Amino acid sequence: MKKLGFLLGALAALAAVPIAARVQRGGSPKSQQPIVLHAARLFEVVPEKIVSPGEVLVEGDRIRAADTSVPHPAGARIIDLGDTTLMPGLIDAHVHLFLHPGTAEDLQTVEESVPQRTIQATLAARADLMAGFTSERDMGTEGAGPADTALREAINAGLLPGPRLRISGMAISILGGHEDAIGFNPAQHVLGNADYANDTEQLIETIRQQRKDGSTFVKIYETGPDRMVPHGSAPCLGDPICAQLGLGEQPGDPEFWDFHTPYQYTEAQLKAAVAEAARLDTNVGVHCQGEPAARFAVEAGVASIDHATQLSDGTMRLMKEKRIPAVPTFAIFEYFADHAPTPEAAAREHAMLDYKIHEFKRQVAAGVPMAVGSDVGPFPHGTQAREFELMARYGMTPLAVLEADYLDGARILTWQNQVGQLKPGYYADIIAVPGNPLADITAVERVEFVMKGGVVYKGKGSD
Ligand SMILES: [Zn+2]
Questions:
Q1: Are residue 134 and residue 213 in the same domain, yes or no?
Q2: Gap from CA of 338 to ligand 1 centroid (Å)
Q3: How many whole angstroms separate alpha carbon 38 and alpha carbon 31?
């Protein structure tokens, strides 16, 4: 009964999507009528400027011009967005469309069918788009196999509203590693949330299988389980590489905690995965919380280091040199700290968050490139623009956060010439926010207007 209620609720929510947004085909607007967006301001990231007023000319699914004024072709539809700032659609470089709050990640695989989770993912995609996220990198279906392929194709065909997606199918992990179904009755053969690969050959085979199933990049778990341990109790846990890097001496939260996480794949294995991804014209993103895994991943040439809680000085230097961004994912850490089930768990999660903040400040000071990724899914879809606010709160300027999102984010999604800027020829992925995001970054949490590929999904002009 509970599940039937869920499905009916999901269908009702889907029915609430404006017809115009549902019936587009081929991801392009239904008519070729040019559109001129007009607003009090326009923010452009390269070169960085805010002009007033701001206008964008949209033809088909592309931007034709953007400036303080643009040509108004005969018959153009003018949408006046009033006292708002026009800016490129937001990019979330780390999402999980197939996860929802309220049930532990591993239990969603156990208790919910893939069709049920796929329906939920369509709602997540819609919520993210309506919050202004027009491009996303889905970092793993967490047990729903390659169901993200169907979702992406439905969005691209204009059947469902959602962001442009880079998809990975399931993340890849080692047997008994991060996101394996540990702690269940072995006789039940509970499925984990990842595809398993234990050596180089299996990694390559898994990547090929995922590509066959529709993936467009590779997600690998490179660390886990990640945990805070009482200070001094487990420096490197006998791991010689960790000791060699001097990480046993690295302080955790100020006085009481150390961070510890084992690596999953060696540098050579990751290099093979990166080479296979490159052969397929794509890249590898890693869940990677600490050393020595981060060094392995950066040496191997991954596209981004996600979570990036602990990075050695040498790794930070290399990331700067190789332009490999960290994706801090503060929003999820904050959510877990604020929603822990017990006071003990809350203390641990808060220690982890404090440690992350401490390390993030070092990373910003060291000039490590950043991208914006929230890890949304375990917390409600559509609320993840909070990540921008947290990155600014913990040490970046609003402009630096927006540059990280639009430039480094687009680059790790390999769409740097198509999204993230209001330039002629780029996709017409445009949002409008109240106020000036450079003065108050929380403006991106109040998106009033969303256009993707020339189609208005939210705000004036959506009906
Ligand atoms: Zn994640």
A1: yes
A2: 18
A3: 20
User: What local confidence, expressed as pLDDT, does residue 5 receive?
Assistant: 41
If asked whether residues 353 and 426 sit together in one domain, one would say no
Region 390-415 average pLDDT: 98
- Ligand 1 centroid–CA 93 distance in Å is 10
- Does one domain contain both 37 and 140? no
Banded pLDDT at 138 (limits 50, 70, 90): very high
pLDDT surpassing 70 at residue 261: yes
* Per-residue pLDDT tens digits for 73-87: 999 999 999 999 999
For the chain, what is the domain count? 2
Q: How do strand 304-307 and strand 284-288 relate by DSSP bridges?
A: parallel
Q: How far is the CA of 297 from the centre of ligand 1 (A)?
A: 17
Which pLDDT belongs to residue 257?
61
Residue with tokens 């059947």: 159
For residue 243, pLDDT over 90 is answered with no
CA 139 – ligand 1 centroid, Å: 6
Q: Using pLDDT thresholds of 50, 70 and 90, give the confidence band for residue 351.
A: confident
| 456 alpha carbon – ligand 1 mean position (Å) | 29
Give the domain range for residue 27: 2-88+421-458
Q: Is residue 463 part of a domain?
A: no
pLDDT band at 67 (very low <50, low <70, confident <90, very high): very high
The Å distance, Cα 75 to ligand 1 centre, comes to 46
pLDDT digits (tens, 9 = 90+) for 193-242: 999 999 999 999 999 999 999 999 999 999 988 777 666 554 555 555 54
Residue 23, pLDDT score: 39
Cα–ligand 1 centroid distance for 375 (angstroms): 5
Distance 290 CA to ligand 1 centre (A): 15
For ligand 1, the distance from its centroid to the CA atom of residue 104, given in whole angstroms, is 13
* Residue range 419-443: mean pLDDT, rounded: 97
Centre of ligand 1 from the C-alpha of residue 124, in Å: 15
- Ligand 1 center to 103 CA (angstroms): 15
Does residue 425 share a domain with residue 353? no
